[in-house]
């Protein structure tokens, strides 16, 4: 999908516009274990266009001077986006800071669309003329608070979307990515994968952007490591900016079937680890937890069990994810990962016959009757699998309001007890039968 980035000095209304464009989708956040999505990156659509959008203003650069922050945000936008929306504030006119942003953006070869925000009514349109001086052509008047002008702005942005955005891989290819905080050993693990003699590295596919994937084959199965380049890319912005690595991770997750959440065995589990893992879970990807640097841990025969317990406690929402202990340094168990990747990827794409599924559900209901509310009992009529990756089930009932999440959880567990869904989230959607 094409990527739009919003850039501009502070207080021009970037996040308001971002939220407008993204609409409801961000608020559908699963509030599990404090997992909330950073409001800096989301998929969105406008008419027939689907795209991803970044609010660079939300990228926390730290305590650097103002100008450096703007510069870094603009550089991230120039790196990551196909189209840049340069936002200004019509009520304040062109400011020095706008000119500074413009100066940075002159360097980019990416298309820039200039938006003048806070033009809340047609009488204020005259205010946009000043902005021609920035040298980005026609300014587009918009109003974030009233939601005006966004259609024209997005039409203009969409004109600049590249033709073919991302490489498409064959369906049989397993696409996976490694995500995690800096220095947990992601690139070392990738090198360990690709450095093995039995691994045939077939190709390195470059996309229109700098994202580079590694294609390889092992034991007759083809794989693609998504965004190998991003993992290997080191530099000031990439290292120092937590939210930027999150952004990179979100993009890799989106293109993957299987996500390896890499943790550093030398350090305790951190909030950021949970957040990153939460993105993979929310995106409905198959997940494997990789406890790396296991060589560096002082251990006895109990350590692995203890660590497993800790991971299970900290990542309750990932109770379905297998855990693999690796050392990218010594290579130990790195190749255990491949069979696990194969397995969870298969589970992620599994289809269950409706007849068997319904037997499981009615058996579950017989054991543990459906809940009642104000004297009415939930009745389940029928269940069917409607999607894979992740497996998604629709349960038809008399009244969806009567489906309590604990009961949904119970049904999920019954399904998991019966079928092999290790490594994959499953989704249950409750619908009223008409
Ligand atoms: P990334 O930022 O997640 O890609 O992490 P890197 O792969 O760059 O690794 C960060 C540092 O940890 C490097 O100094 C690696 O040599 C080291 N490292 C990576 N994996 C292991 C491991 O399994 N064991 C040990 N002891 N060190 C590791």
Automatic annotation (TrEMBL):
Q: Name one GO molecular function term.
A: hydrolase activity
Q: Which InterPro entries match?
A: G_ENGA, GTP-bd, GTPase_Der, KH_dom-like, KH_dom-like_a/b, P-loop_NTPase, Small_GTP-bd
Recite the UniProt keywords alphabetically. GTP-binding, Hydrolase, Nucleotide-binding, Repeat, Ribosome biogenesis
- The entry's GTP 2-binding residues are 180-187, 227-231, 292-295
Mention any Pfam family matching this sequence.
MMR_HSR1
Where GTP 1 is bound, by residue? 8-15, 55-59, 117-120
| Database matches in PROSITE patterns | G_ENGA (PS51712)
EngA-type G domain: residues covered: 2-165, 174-349
Q: How does it assemble?
A: Associates with the 50S ribosomal subunit.
UniProt record similarity statement:
Belongs to the TRAFAC class TrmE-Era-EngA-EngB-Septin-like GTPase superfamily. EngA (Der) GTPase family.
Mind telling me which HAMAP family this protein's record contains?
GTPase_Der (MF_00195)
| Chain's role | GTPase that plays an essential role in the late steps of ribosome biogenesis.
Protein's recorded name? GTPase Der
Query: What organism, scientifically named, is this protein from?
Result: Kurthia gibsonii
Gene that produces this protein: der
């Amino acid at each position: 999908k094409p990527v739009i980035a919003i850039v501009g000095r502070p207080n021009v209304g970037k996040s308001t516009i971002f939220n407008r464009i993204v609409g409801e989708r961000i608020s559908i956040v699963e509030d599990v274990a404090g997992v909330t999505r950073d409001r800096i990156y989301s998929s969105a659509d406008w008419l027939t266009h689907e795209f991803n959008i970044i609010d660079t203003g939300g990228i926390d650069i730290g305590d650097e001077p103002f100008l450096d922050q703007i510069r870094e945000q603009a550089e991230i936008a120039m790196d990551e986006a196909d189209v840049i929306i340069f936002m200004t504030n019509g009520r304040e006119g062109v400011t020095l800071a706008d000119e500074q942003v413009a100066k940075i953006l002159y360097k980019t070869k990416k298309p820039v669309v200039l938006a003048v925000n806070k033009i809340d009514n047609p009488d204020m349109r005259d205010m946009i003329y000043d902005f021609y001086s920035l040298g980005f052509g026609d300014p587009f008047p918009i109003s974030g608070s009233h939601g005006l002008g966004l259609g024209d702005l997005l039409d203009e942005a969409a004109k600049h979307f590249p033709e073919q955005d991302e490489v498409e891989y064959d369906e049989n290819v397993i696409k996976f990515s490694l995500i995690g905080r800096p220095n947990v050993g992601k690139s070392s693990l990738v090198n360990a994968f690709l450095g093995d003699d039995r691994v045939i590295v077939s190709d390195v596919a470059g996309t229109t952007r700098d994202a580079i994937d590694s294609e390889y084959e092992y034991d007759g199965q083809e794989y693609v490591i998504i965004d190998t380049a991003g993992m290997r890319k080191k530099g000031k912005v990439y290292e120092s900016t937590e939210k930027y690595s999150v952004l990179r991770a979100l993009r890799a997750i989106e293109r993957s079937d299987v996500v390896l959440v890499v943790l550093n065995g030398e350090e305790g589990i951190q909030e950021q680890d949970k957040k990153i893992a939460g993105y993979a879970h929310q995106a409905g990807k198959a997940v494997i937890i990789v406890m790396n640097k296991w060589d560096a841990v002082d251990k006895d025969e109990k350590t692995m069990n203890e660590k497993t317990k800790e991971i299970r406690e900290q990542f309750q929402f990932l109770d379905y994810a297998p855990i693999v202990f690796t050392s990218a340094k010594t290579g130990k168990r790195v190749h255990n990962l491949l069979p696990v990747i194969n397995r969870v990827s298969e589970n992620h794409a599994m289809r269950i016959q409706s007849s068997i599924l319904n037997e499981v559900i009615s058996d579950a209901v017989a054991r543990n009757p459906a809940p009642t509310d104000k004297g009415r009992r939930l009745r389940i009529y029928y269940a069917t699998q409607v999607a894979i990756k992740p497996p998604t089930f629709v349960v038809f009932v008399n009244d969806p309001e009567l489906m309590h999440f604990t009961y949904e959880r119970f049904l999920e567990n019954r399904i998991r007890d019966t079928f092999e869904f290790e490594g994959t989230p499953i989704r249950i959607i409750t619908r009223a039968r008409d």
